[in-house]
Amino acid sequence: MAQKVHSAEILCIGTELLMGDIVNTNAAYIAKEMAVLGINLYYQSVVGDNPKRLKESLELAFSRVDTVITTGGLGPTYDDLTKETIAEYFGQTLQLHQPSYDRLCEYFARTGRIMTDNNKKQAYMPEHCTVLENPNGTAPGCCIEQDGKTLIMLPGPPREMKPMFDHWAIPILLKDSDATLVSKNLYFFGIGESALESRLKDLMVNSLNPTVAPYAKTGEVMLRVTAKVQKPEEAEALMEPVLKRINEEAGQYLYGIDVDNLQTAAVRILKRKGLHAAAAESCTGGLVAKRITEVSGASEVFECGITAYSNRIKQQVLHVNELTLQRYGAVSKEIAAEMAEGVRRLSGADIGVSVTGNAGPGASEGKPVGLVYVGISSKNYTNVIPLEIRRTDDDAREYIRYIASSNALYQVIEAAKRA
């Protein structure tokens, strides 16, 4: 039986990670989850697809921690040698795991592909391991517990690694714990991480159970409130005073709890209120509509998205006034207001949202890069939000477009609240 986890290390395997060809998002994901689990993560390492160096990395890792989580190197090709090297490290041989082999055969039969011998090697597992099923790919993971050491082997592709970590690794990591962790994710928009921290710093520093941890996202902030309890039903009472304090200090920026993102929050509140929305976009080029329609069930609440990039289309489709365009220019609060009103009337939606601005790279109509106006039109709430999105690096254009679309989604949420 494995001992309680006291310390851990993440060991990511893959030459492509060392070369910078792939960004190591796996380590970031696992590290955040380990923090929530209350497990001491002491080190993160990366090693290439080299058996000798991988073995040296394992020896170093287990000299300083009792649990190692690896990602990568479980594929079918010749350089995928993670299992072989780890099995050798633990003095175990690889044996065919029949259930894994059967699942491989079913997968290839279902997809109409031919299974080659190198695919079969993915079904060979260390003889004394717990096999972790992979419903999202062909490479199962495994867990080895031996001599007070625990090694959890996960696949490299994030879409396979994340569900395997959540479904299999977390129970293994917590199986000797007498506590259960319950978390709530609080999402904020319109306030930066530092500003939110200044309001809640004492809570973040002094609150031990539940803990409060901030996570910065692009243009947003998430707070994860985590309670450690013996029974899940005890968590609500423990969290209540902390959630109340957060709401008192920053509730005006809180757009959702456990909603993942702005577009999900927007679709949810539109459904709850029985409302429909439509979007008219210029500089964002349909990004607002794209993000909304990424959410399952968006068809119930989203009428249409119109990309009116030229002034002619703004006039002919959205009925923007030509004199307004001549007097104020396309990048103006007046045009944003008329676009939002135009798409609302055209679609028959309850809420019309618009975006017009200059995403760069150069000035337009004498308007600086990053100047954006977000318009909102509804029966009870009409507004135009001016934005000055300052960014000068190579990704400035896409960053401006993304932040503008986020503001548009947030305004949809605000309008729905007032409906």
User: What is the annotated CATH architecture of the largest domain?
Assistant: 3-Layer(aba) Sandwich
Radius of gyration: 26 Å
Largest sheet: 6 strands, mixed
**What oligomeric state is this?**
single chain
Count of the separate structural domains: 3
Task: Sum up the overall morphology in one term.
Answer: elongated
Uncertain residue segments: none
Mean pLDDT level? 91
Structural class: alpha/beta
Give the N-terminus to C-terminus distance in angstroms: 57 Å
How much of the sequence is in beta strands? Answer: 15-25%
CATH class of the largest domain: Alpha Beta
| CATH homologous superfamily grouping of the largest domain | MoaB/Mog-like domain
What is the helical fraction, as a range of percent?
40-55%
Description:
With about 425 residues, this protein is an alpha/beta fold. Strands 2-1-3-8-7-6 form a 6-stranded mixed β-sheet, sandwiched between helices. The chain has helices at about 15-20, 25-35, 50-60, 80-90, 100-110, 115-120, 160-175, 195-205, 235-250, 260-275, 285-295, 310-315, 320-330, 335-345, 395-419; strands spanning about 10-15, 40-45, 65-70, 95, 125, 130, 140-145, 150-155, 180-190, 210-215, 220-230, 255, 275-280, 300-305, 350-355, 370-380, 380-390. Helix content is about 40%, strand content about 25%. The longest helix is centred in the C-terminal third of the chain and has 23 residues, at about 395-419. It contains 15 helices and 17 strands. It folds into 3 domains: about 10-175, MoaB/Mog-like domain (Molybdenum Cofactor Biosythetic Enzyme, Chain A), CATH 3.40.980.10; about 180-255, Alpha-Beta Plaits; about 260-419, CinA-like (Maf protein, Alpha-Beta Complex).
